[in-house]
């Protein structure tokens, strides 16, 4: 089914875009290297391939006049998510171009910036740096050539976005989401509340054994205080 195929492609595009975003954050940092630049190149090319395939399928589906209202609404939601993902990819590619130009690999350069990136991006960078290539010495101009290629690819992505908007007119403000804003948070809070209520129902509003223990403890405490007062008066 075309809709399921579009969803699968969009999910893969989202993952590739997120991976590229985190890799871009390490350009110019102490983790920067040619391995990272190669991983950036592969990731963005994969993202562009997925974007081209997804855009073609969505365009064909939305231009089909036989499409039902409910199914058209679903494809429009996918279209809005796809266009947003493509814009984020273009922004990250521009950021990679700026950072790559500011921090060339094989020329005398200014000190690398410590970006302070931690958490998940560290794992992505570690995966990018785990590859060992023996071609680095022979490819001293890799980063320079890649920056020229990146400039051309940014123009291609921009043209893809323009063509996409010209072929299919889907105003974003007309597309309705399936869930209300923050529905995931509300569902999580509802589950927590339900769990609390179920625990309270099991234990009851007041546990008799705990009430008896509290009463006995209070009586012993009062007796101890009274005994201490008497001893103080006799002395």
Any overview of this molecule?
The protein is mostly helical. It is 72% helix and 0% strand. It is built from 7 helices and no strands. Helix 1 packs parallel to helix 3 and helix 2 packs antiparallel against helix 3. The longest helix is centred in the middle third of the chain and has 34 residues, at 69-102. The N and C termini lie far apart (94 Å).
Rg estimate, integer Å: 31 Å
**Distance linking N and C termini:** 94 Å
Summing up helix and strand content along with how strands pair, one would put the structural category as: mainly alpha
> Helix tally?
7
Sequence stretches where pLDDT stays below 50 over 5 or more residues: 128-138
- The 3D shape can be described as elongated
Helicity range of the residues?
over 70%
- In total, how many beta strands? 0
Could you name the key traits of this structure?
235 residues; mainly alpha; 0% strand
